[in-house]
Here is the input.
Amino acid sequence: MNQIALLGATGSIGTSTLDVVRAHREQLQLYGVSAHRDWQKLATICQEFTPNVAILSDESVAAKLDRSAFPAETELRFGADALCDLAVEKPVHTVVAAIVGAAGLASSYEAAKAGKRLAIANKETLVVAGPLVMAAARESGAELLPVDSEHSAIYQALKSGEHREVAQVVLTSSGGPFRQKSAAEIKAATPEEALNHPTWDMGPKITIDSATLMNKALEVIEARWLFDLQADQIDVVVHPQSIVHSFVEFQDGSVIAQLSPPDMRLPIQYALAYPERWTAVAPRMDFKTACQLDFSPPDLERFPALQLGFEVARRGGSSGAVLNAANEVAVSRFLRGELSFYDIEKVCRQILDQHDFSPTPTFEELVALDDWARKETILWKS
Ligand code: NDP
Ligand code: MG
Here is the structure.
């Protein structure tokens, strides 16, 4: 029985993970779950799965919640430190990192150091601290299984050859809701328009990232560290159907891809079942119905945020932490109507250029830089 700590159980990835657990109850058991503030939704999850531990990472929720909404067998804990404690707890075999943003970093890092299987949806962990997290996993023997659909596809495709035989990996991008919009239309985009993603139903932060293509920028950086690639081995192609989840091209010119309808339950299940493959909970491909697969190069003029991903992947060091923090704050300011759509890329670039670059930052230095970049982005005016 695989005991799971699901951090971020109330979110979009959390909800899909619960579906996978529901479908494979003989193999999977929820040992612990977390939410930040949504205690009612967490209580409903606990009523169904009776985990040993439930965490509300926002400590202030302790004073508000109704204890009787949770099963008596579930121990309630509060505060961000409780996430790290749960991630390293002995009975936990797999930590599903489904928190949004750099708030998910500390618990992912602890899981990697403790030798757990880390099913990693929280790409920000690798964007901010890829080299540290990968080194910790190597040392402890922790297995890092990507949940991001593109990286799950690459992980699977890489099994066709040796690492030294890889020529390049190509991440697919749906192109987001503004794929066919002009620069002028994109410039005037409202939060409502940006939140309307064509193929994926996700949390608000990643949905805005998908509209700017910052999500793909973060994924380029994620791939750089996760698969130990050079920045110039990573490319992006726009594929509006979101069926081919990525490609790996080997030195001999063979290109291996992974295909499936867009549904996060497949990559989540793959990360939990690995090295096995279990019966699908997500819908399967239907080759009896005609379908078309289109590919085109991304337009860096209309989507300049993507360029930041290639630059940060090349530069490494502290630049991922700064880009990520600036982007998190810029996205929330855009959602509040304080910044325009293209301001997101503009402020990220400026904060990145201004920061005191360090080629090999420690964890503490990354946390300090994250804090600095957030403060600068809050004050930034266009
Ligand atoms: P959601 O916004 O839907 O969910 C976020 C989860 O994190 C919720 O459980 C939320 O709790 C919790 N949370 C929010 N803020 C904090 C905090 N400060 N500290 C601790 N927990 C917090 O996000 P998604 O599920 O869409 O995304 C989660 C991660 O997975 C992101 O890193 C994203 O990039 C990645 N990802 C998501 C995909 C998707 O399809 N959604 C696809 C690929 C990657 P509460 O409900 O209480 O606020
Ligand atoms: Mg993705």
